[in-house]
Amino acid sequence: MTSLTKKTLSGKVAIITGGARGIGEATARLFADHGARTIIVADIQDELGQQVATSIATPDCICTYVHCDVSDEDQVKSLVESTVQNHGKLDIMFSNAGILSKSDQTILDLDFAQFDRLMAINVRGMVTCVKEAARVMVEGCVRGSIICTGSMAASNGTKKWIDYCVSKHAVLGLVRSASKQLGVHGIRVNCVSPAGVATPMTCDALDKGVVEVEEFFGAKRILKGVALRARHVADAVLFLASDGAELITGQDLLVDGGFQA
Which positions make up the signal peptide (predicted)? Predict the structure, then answer.
């Protein structure tokens, strides 16, 4: 297995959706630290996204921000095609953009307007990112890596947030099917599934501070002594994006501190 070094992603061109904060931002910074030539930070939070891209860019790493709502197929297609036009190829797609449930919905009180909005981003948006990235990788004969953000909710039922749980099960099905269909082109498709991480989005959804969220989810893990943070998930994404994972595809890499155990 190839070790991860500061040149692990040397020469690579990557897109990270949902890259303005949280797991996406942490991954963008890690990719830059490990030699990525070009990183496209895609999000709908323009001010934050631009700040992140500007702070990452160096003479050795091009990092730019692109506004992209992943629920809009045309915007995703434009994002991917402009990346190839401007930078020659696409090696890595980290399809990370997603949202959480707006309420503690169960099947008995499911609001389909909320359900449809969440599915448009978490499922349709994820499928679109995988489709468009794979299309240009096949056309460019690139043995690329596509990574999707899943969740421990993809492997368990939940007592609430049913819309979110359903969406993450769909993501896992996407990864497993797409990996089988794209393997012939040398394209790897994997999923990274964290347990609860105290990202700004999670803290907002739970209306709790970082420490409270870390304690809330930490109580459910068997591995004690360290809080699960965005950088831990980013480490897993970096591995799946690297040549060190060149024979790994169709997998769901759990970053959960033993929750599933």
Answer: none
